[in-house]
Amino acid sequence: MNEAPAAAGEKAPREWMVRAIGLVKRHGQEEVLRGIHLDVLRGEVAAVIGPSGGGKSTFLRCLNGLERFDEGTVEVNGTVIRSGLPPAEEARLHRQVRAHVGMVFQQFHLFPHRTVIQNIIEAPVHVAGRRVDEARSQAMALLERVGLAAKAECRPCTLSGGQQQRVAIARTLAMGPKIILFDEPTSALDPHMTGEVLSVMADLASDGLTLLVVTHAMSFARRAAHRVHVFHGGRVIESGPPEQVFDAPREQVTRDFLKLSSE
Amino acid sequence: MLVLAPRWTAAAGGAALDAIRERGWFTWGADEEGGGPYVFPAPDQSGRRTGFEVDLADELARELTGALGKPIEARFAQAQWDKLPDLLQTGRIDCILNGYEWTPERARYLLATVPYYVYELQLLARAGDTRIESWETLRTLPGLQIGVLGGSAAERFVAEQAPGARVVSFDGSTNAMGEVVKARLDATVQDYPIAVFYQKEFPTLRFVGEPAAPGRYVIYVRREDSALCEVFNRAIVSLRASGKLKEIYDRYGIWTRAQLDPVLSSLPKIDDSGETAPLAERAVQFFHAHALILLRAAGMTILLSVVAFPIAIGIGILVALGRLFGPKPISILLAVYVEVLRGTPLMLQLFVIFYVLPSAGVYLDAFSAAVLGLAVNYSAYEAEIYRAGLQAVPVGQMEAALALGMSKSLALRRIIVPQAVRIVIPPVTNDFIALFKDTSVCSVITIVELTKQYNIAAMTHPAEVLPLAAVAGVLYLAMSYPLSLFSGFMERRLAK
Fold first, then answer.
1. Which residue in chain B is spatially nearest to A65 when comparing CA positions?
2. B89-109: per-residue pLDDT in tens?
3. Is A177 on the interface with B (CB under 8 A)?
4. CA–CA separation, B304 and B452 (whole Å)
């Protein structure tokens, strides 16, 4: 617990995509995060697992500023955010971080008043300032990639959950992120739709994109992740390659959790 | 407000008189709001009312007591002045006794007693304003702004005698006088008793020239109540002969030599030719008399609505965003803004803007004041609607937008507000129709829109109330129906 981030191999600090040091987050009296130390290397696929209420989602949201934290430091793609910064400075850094960090939500959060393709080109056009026709052709390529080119002109509400999540991934990819944060991307989906989303994610992983995935899909974590982090009670209680965490967990909590998950 | 007055037809001419004898009192309708020296709250704060018409009603009761051989009491019934004929027709009062002039239009529709007072019109201007020397000035100096009581004889007189003047109609006599004092109007024309009574409250006003354009105040009863009318006639004649009338009028300083004129103190003959003209001809006359005026008034209703509502929407959006996303002090300030404006009546706000702000140095003409009042009042309601609409958009929408790198304001503009708009279209349409109808409140600050114009026309042509109401109603519907169509179209378009 609270151990220094385990450096993988010989990689230098520059190779960190994400580094959290001593992250503490409180909701009133309750400590949701109690000193998180965790790093994600460039090109790494990291899975965060653990029982509900362990602080997994909160941690993820602290990384791109959707949540503020009370103590500690976060470094994302070279941008360092410390707790207790002046609000204006913090907001500036958040935007700097978000320019390179994508996020995929459990509930997709597609924009219901826009078509699929409009959802995808919204940020490229209005944030990155790209030309509409350029953004559109890029969006079509992304839709091809997630297998939904035929749905470009549909409203999100006409799509299945799995299709919506694939659009959400394409929407995130359109901004060319260096890392994508996945916040339980398949938890709101029927089991038969989980596969189509996970295979898109596996595709991204094999392309060398850095992914930080909070998930309950253990098979995905085992297959695609380079490292697995187990969250419990606002701490990282165990980290390691999947074969170690899944097959020879050190902590009793991890064993209990994995036993429950496999049932 | 459109009031359709059904005409109950009593069986015999003596129905009302019999009823009065039966119950021991008669009710006379009048408006004590700004009603001095006619009917007004007694200055001793006793809650009683006084005025020469109160004294007259008591004298009439005494005469009726003699005529009916039974104690009869006079009971006062409060009503808005221009609605008194409607009240009379519905049988809720027995007569109107409240400075109602004899006009041929009214006399065709109601039964008039002999005049109880011969009024004249008095021209009033500021003491220091030497331009206005006599009635003649109204003709020779074009462009003068003259305040009058809406629907009164003074209004018609000025319109006829001084076509170059701009006539501004008020709901109360004292409002017009106050505006002359504040130099927002050049002069006002008032019934002589009013001018006399309020002279002490407006010491800077000066009587210009002699009283002019005499007319007759009469008591009106329903057409079928000829017996009651006869009793009143005998009572008035006897009060005049005994000097009781002069006694009353002297008490209020309003006795004039015109009271002695034998012609003016009796009723003129009615020219009934208009009544017997063929229907088609009457319809043409009706159209000529009212159509254009009502259409123009409807134009004012539309203009007020379409100018005021977009402003209300604009302010409302800013207030809602400020309340939801602004820093705490601003959010609190805006909450107060909303509560104050929602919690006080539109009429009061219009009054403050038009009559009170000028003393703080902010002068707005009637139209601007009306637009401002409507826009500010409705902005509070709009703000609450938008706040609800914005809060109805799931939090995740904002988070997704922020995560894509949008700034908060871009996210609001591109993602949150467009979704909120769809949610709020039905209530906003509702509000627009409400504002559309609330434009009629602006008549308190001299705006003449459709309802006001209808009231004025109905006042001067009481026999044509029904067709007038129909025309006004059709105009309102013709204006609001396209609005509903448009709103339905927008809902369908945005619901896609």
1. B403
2. 888 899 999 989 898 888 888
3. no
4. 14
